[in-house]
Amino acid sequence: MKPQLSQKTQVKSRSADLSEWYNDIVLKAQLADYAPVKGCMVIRPYGYALWESIQAYLDKLIKDRGVKNAYFPLFVPMHYLQKEKEHVEGFSPQLAVVTIGGGEKLTENLAVRPTSETIMYDMYRQWTKSWRDLPILINQWCNVVRWEKRTYLFLRTTEFLWQEGHCAHLTHEESMDQVIWALNAYEQTYSDHLAMYGIKGVKSESEKFAGAGQTFTFECLMPNGKALQACTSHDLGQNFSKSFDWSVQDKTGAKVNPWQNSWGLSTRSIGGLIMVHGDDNGLVFPPNVAPIQIVIVPLPNHDDALRLATSIFNDFKNQYRLELDTVEDETAGYKFNQWEMKGVPLRIEIGNREAAQNQVTVYQRDTGLKQIISVSDLVSTLPKLLNSIQSNLLAKHRQFTQDSTHIVDSYEDFKKIMSTTRGFISAFWCQNSQCEDQVKADTKATTRCLPLDSKLEDGKCIVCGKPATHRWLFAQSY
């Protein structure tokens, strides 16, 4: 179905102000809109198609791993959250709590799901008695609510959509294998599907998930030099199974608390996608995730062009996500601007002159290049162009990230970069939380992660000068 087009083609300048451009393009390209409830958003069909595409790609990876989808309640009894001390402390400021139901005060308040560890793990406890009942490999696609003070369409909203995998294993080794698998699956989703480059790493103690032993992350750099935590995978150890008094018998008959992990990716991935690839003319979508991969635009009142456009559409509609723009009373220029704003990777333009020669003009959204192609060559040319756009966008983001990553040994240089160009800063840190807090107070930057490929070195902490063994990545973040 053809998405409705905005009646205003002009978008704000991305190069002048990324934040204003971002809000402008999300609204004008009809990806989402502000909801009547403060902090929430309505995801419109064109935006939801992006989520469906991400969901389909990642869901296949999840199922290929042997993880099965299920669904658990939206409401969580408060005493569940209180079983794991760090967990409840971490989420308390963001909880939405139901106190009245059916016109009566509830005997126990219910939290609206901020995440599902507690309610899922109590069920796991009931379902398992011995090692034969493990592993439990379950994922759910759902919504969660975290009462945010400052919200941002897609990037940070009070309610958002995500998947959350929750698995339980007999050994820590098996659980860690699942943690790293999930992190790699996320990297594959961003790289191969969204054409986004990022850094895999482990979070600091202060930045890890509440209740986790370790949190692993995939950090992506945005055009304004800020980092986006694109997803996380958590080694929960035995924290929750001990809190829930959950044990199973191992092969020797001894009682063992299962080892657990959780991992999630949300609709904030769409926010990152928008910012990373867009330009002053609007959205730029990688073909693999684009709701519409190719749009065919016959020039208005060009009857021969319309006949050829219809023929091409019928020939390729089962191979690509294809749109034929036959809307009347709009100029060709207006149509071109609209589809460019919506980020469609390829646009096929046809006038009567091209139709007479059995040719078309193909416009490539990522580079702005146009070329004349004979209709007979479209079969071989279109897939090459789409593959080229996909790989070029990933290479462009990879190069930007590498160019915007600074190796810094002076705290003065650190502060200067964070007050100007920003970006990733690779710097030694002694892992003392006081130094971490000092960096945040001075620059608004936080430790994003210790990259998984980080090497052991002899260095000095960027703040206090004490011995440090690793370079951590710092950045301001969303």
What does this structure look like?
With 478 residues, the chain is of the alpha+beta class. It folds into 3 domains: 18-277, Bira Bifunctional Protein, Domain 2 (BirA Bifunctional Protein, domain 2), CATH 3.30.930; 294-392, Anticodon-binding domain (Rossmann fold, 3-Layer(aba) Sandwich); 405-475, 2-Layer Sandwich (Translation Initiation Factor IF3), CATH 3.30.110. The chain has helices spanning 18-28, 45-64, 78-81, 85-91, 117-127, 172-193, 239-243, 268-277, 303-316, 332-341, 352-356, 378-403, 411-418, 433-443, and strands at 32-34, 41-43, 68-69, 75-77, 97-101, 104-112, 136-145, 159-169, 199-202, 214-221, 227-237, 248-249, 255-256, 259-266, 294-298, 322-324, 346-350, 359-364, 370-374, 405-407, 424-428, 446-451, 459-460, 467-468, 471-475. It has an 11-stranded mixed β-sheet, with helices on both faces. Helix 13 links the parallel strand 20 (405-407) and strand 21. Helix 2 crosses helix 6. The longest helix is centred in the C-terminal third of the chain and has 26 residues, at 378-403. Residues 1-8 have low confidence and may be disordered.
Protein traits:
478 residues, alpha+beta, BirA Bifunctional Protein, domain 2, Rossmann fold, Translation Initiation Factor IF3, 11-stranded mixed β-sheet, 34% helix, globular
Low-confidence stretches: 1-8
Tell me the number of strands. 25
Largest sheet: 11 strands, mixed
Give the overall form: globular
State the strand order across the main sheet: 3-7-8-14-11-10-9-22-25-21-20
CATH class of the largest domain: Alpha Beta
